[in-house]
UniProtKB/TrEMBL annotation:
GO MF term list: glycerol-3-phosphate dehydrogenase [NAD(P)+] activity
Positions bound to sn-glycerol 3-phosphate: K106, G137, S139, K192, D245, S255, R256, N257
Catalytic activity, EC: 1.1.1.94
This protein's name: Glycerol-3-phosphate dehydrogenase [NAD(P)+]
Location (main, coarse): cytoplasm
Length: 340
C-alpha cells in the first residue's frame, strides 16, 4: 500500500482517486474548494463532476495544500493544463522530499508551446523531482467509475518510474501499459482534443460517418507529422495515446471536446458553449498552441488551421469544411516519402 495524493478534484482526478483507493492505496484527493472536500469526506460524492457515483469511504479529501504535499511520495497532477503552473508553484512550497510526479492533463501551453512535463520541470526545483510520468490514453472518467475495461499508457524516459505508476494504477478493469516516448504520448493526448472538436462540429453540421472517419485518419496524420518533427516516435501514434484516444474522443458522447464541437456545429457561439459545458474543454487552448507549433516547425496541419479559423477568427464551420475539401490535390502517403 502506497500513500498517493491527487491534486485536482474534477472528473478525472476523482475517477483516478477511486482507482487508487480501490487498489488499496492510501489516497488523498486535494480540491481547491473546501465545500467540495467536505462533500467528498461526508457525502462520499462529487456530484458536480461525477453525478451518481458513490466514492469509497477509504478515499479522503482535503482542501489544505500543505496536508496534500506532505501526504506521501507520489503526487498525481489532475488539474487542467491552464492550472498546472499555479498548482506546481503553490505545492512546491510544502514539499519536503523528492516526489514521483504523475501528470494526467492533456494540453499544450499556448505561447510558451511547452508540453505539460516541460512546464512542470520549469516550475518544480530539480531536487524535488524523483521522476515525472505521464499517464494518458482512451479513458473517459464516466466509464472508469463504472469499471468498464479501460487501457492507458504510463510514459517516462526512465522506464522504472513508468513501471511504478503501472503498479499503482493497474487492476482487472484498468490496464496500464508502459512506454518511454514521453513526447509522443503528450502530443497525442493533447492534440486529439483538436480533432475531437472537429468531429463534434462535423456531427453538429449533420455530416456523417465518412466525414468523421476522414477527420480521425487525416487528424492522426497531422498529429504524427508534428509530433515526429518534435522528436516523438511515429509508432507511438498508432498506440493507445494516439489512434486509441482519437477514436474514443471523436466518437464518445462523454467527450467534452466532442460535445463542445457539436454545439459549435449547431451554430452556438464559442463563449456560450464554454459557459454551458461547466468543465474543461482542453481542445480550445490546444488549438491555439498547435496552430503556433505548426508555424514554428513549418509543419502543415490543415485540420488544426481550420479549427483555429472557426474558434478564433469567426469563420463559419461549414465554410471551414468546404475550404478543407477544396485544398490542392495530395498523395495520401506524402508524409511517408520523407522516410523512404
Ligand atoms: N475527464 C476525463 O475523462 C479525462 C480528463 N483528462 C484530462 O485531465 C485534466 C483534468 O480534467 P478533468 O478532471 O476532466 O476536468 P474537470 O473540468 O472535470 O475538472 C477540473 C478540476 O480542476 C479544478 N481546477 C481548475 N483549475 C484549478 C487550479 N488552478 N487549481 C486547482 N484546481 C483547479 C476544478 O475546480 P473548480 O470546480 O473550482 O473549477 C475542477 O475540480 C484535463 O487536462 C483533461 O484533458 C484525461 C483523461 C480523461
Ligand atoms: O481525454 C479524454 C478521454 O481519453 C477525455 O476527453 P474530453 O476532455 O474531451 O472529455
Amino acid at each position: 500500500m502506497e500513500k498517493v495524493v491527487v491534486l485536482g478534484a474534477g472528473s478525472w482526478g476523482t475517477a483516478l482517486s477511486i482507482v487508487l483507493a480501490e487498489n488499496g492505496h492510501n489516497c488523498l484527493l486535494w480540491s481547491h474548494r473546501e465545500d467540495q472536500a467536505n462533500e467528498i469526506n461526508h457525502q462520499h460524492s462529487n456530484e458536480k463532476y461525477l453525478p451518481g457515483t458513490v466514492l469509497p469511504t477509504s478515499l479522503k479529501a482535503t482542501s489544505s495544500l500543505k496536508e496534500a504535499a506532505t501526504h506521501g511520495k507520489t503526487i498525481v497532477m489532475a488539474v487542467p493544463t491552464k492550472g498546472i503552473r499555479e498548482v506546481c508553484r503553490n505545492v512546491k512550497e510544502w514539499i519536503q522530499e523528492p516526489i514521483l510526479f504523475v501528470h494526467v492533463s492533456k494540453g499544450i501551453e499556448p505561447d510558451s508551446l511547452k508540453r505539460i512535463s516541460e512546464v512542470m520541470r520549469e516550475e518544480l526545483p530539480v531536487h524535488l523531482i524523483e521522476g515525472i510520468v505521464v499517464l494518458s490514453g482512451p479513458s473517459h472518467a464516466e466509464e472508469v467509475v463504472l469499471k468498464h475495461p479501460t487501457t492507458v499508457t504510463a510514459a517516462c524516459e526512465d522506464i522504472q518510474y513508468a513501471e511504478k505508476v503501472q503498479d499503482l494504477f493497474m487492476n482487472g478493469n484498468f490496464r496500464v501499459y508502459t512506454n518511454s516516448d514521453v513526447i509522443g504520448v503528450e502530443i497525442g493526448g493533447a492534440l486529439k482534443n483538436i480533432i475531437a472538436l472537429g468531429a463534434g462540429i462535423s456531427d453538429g453540421l449533420g455530416y456523417g460517418d465518412n466525414a468523421k472517419a476522414a477527420l480521425i485518419t487525416r487528424g492522426l496524420a497531422e498529429i504524427a507529422r508534428l509530433g515526429t518533427k518534435m522528436g516523438a516516435k511515429s509508432s507511438t501514434f498508432s498506440g493507445l495515446t494516439g489512434i486509441g484516444d482519437l477514436i474514443v474522443t471523436c466518437t464518445s458522447v462523454h467527450s467534452r471536446n466532442w460535445r463542445a464541437g457539436n454545439l459549435l456545429g449547431k451554430g452556438m457561439k464559442l463563449d456560450d458553449v464554454l459557459n454551458q459545458m461547466g468543465m474543461v474543454v482542453e481542445g480550445v487552448r490546444t488549438t491555439k498552441a498547435a496552430h503556433q507549433l505548426s508555424k514554428f516547425h513549418e509543419v502543415p496541419m490543415p485540420i488544426t488551421s481550420a479549427l483555429y479559423a472557426v474558434l478564433f477568427e469567426q469563420v463559419d464551420p461549414k465554410i471551414a469544411v468546404d475550404q478543407l475539401m477544396d485544398r490542392v490535390k495530395k498523395h495520401e502517403m506524402e508524409d511517408l516519402f520523407e522516410y523512404l
